[in-house]
Design a protein that fits this description.
Largest sheet: none
Order of helices and strands: HHHHHHHH
Number of strands: 0
Distance between the termini: 35 Å
Shape: globular
C-alpha cells in the first residue's frame, strides 16, 4: 500500500530526527506526537475508505500509538519542560492523575484497534464499523470505557472515536494554543 509506505517513512524520519536530539525532551515528545498524528491519519483514512484497509498497516499504526501512549507519554511529561518550543501547559504536574489516566486510556484504545486488526486480517468487516444510531460514549469530558471486556465488545471504529476524543480532551486541557 503506497500510502502506508509514505506514512511509515514520515514516522521513521520523525523518530530518527528525535533520536539525534534525545537530550531535548520537548523535541522527543513532539516527534512522538507527530508520529501518533500520522498513524491516526492512516487509520482514519482506512475508516473513510474501507477498500484501502490493510490489516498489517492498521495494526502497525495502532501499535505505534499504543507504544507511544501510556507510560511512555507519562514519562515524556514527568518533569515540567520550561522551553519556548513546548506547547504543554504547566497544569500537567498539578493534574497528574487526570493526565496519566488520559495517557493510559489512549494506550487502551490503541491496543483495542490492534486487536481488531488481528481479528480482521483481510477486510474491514461490518463488525469493525459503528452502526447508525449507535451511542458513542466518550465526549469532551473524557468519559472512557471502564474495562477491557467492555472495550473488546465495541466496534473498532467506536474505539477509534474514543481515542480521538481522548486526544482532543488532553489537548484542550493540557496544550497551549
Amino acid at each position: 500500500m503506497k500510502s502506508g509506505i509514505i506514512v511509515r517513512t514520515v514516522i521513521f524520519m520523525t523518530v530518527a530526527s528525535a533520536a539525534v536530539c534525545a537530550e531535548d525532551i520537548v523535541t522527543v515528545r513532539q516527534a512522538d506526537m507527530k508520529a501518533i498524528a500520522a498513524a491516526t491519519k492512516s487509520i482514519a483514512g482506512m475508516f473513510k475508505v474501507p477498500s484501502t484497509y490493510s490489516s498489517p498497516e492498521f495494526k502497525w499504526a495502532a501499535e505505534l500509538i499504543r507504544d507511544k501512549a501510556g507510560q511512555t507519554l507519562i514519562d515524556h511529561f514527568s518533569v515540567e519542560a520550561a522551553s519556548p518550543a513546548s506547547k504543554a501547559k504547566p497544569n500537567i504536574t498539578e493534574e497528574r492523575e487526570r493526565f496519566d489516566r488520559l495517557a493510559n486510556d489512549l494506550k487502551s484504545y490503541a491496543a483495542a484497534l490492534a486487536v481488531a486488526a488481528e481479528k480482521n486480517p483481510t477486510d474491514m468487516t461490518d463488525s469493525m464499523r459503528m452502526k447508525p444510531g449507535e451511542p458513542m460514549g466518550g465526549g469532551p469530558l473524557g468519559t472512557h470505557v471502564q474495562s477491557e471486556a467492555e472495550l473488546s465488545s465495541i466496534p473498532a471504529e467506536h474505539a477509534f472515536h474514543l481515542m480521538l476524543q481522548t486526544c482532543t480532551t488532553c489537548h484542550v486541557r493540557f496544550r497551549m494554543e
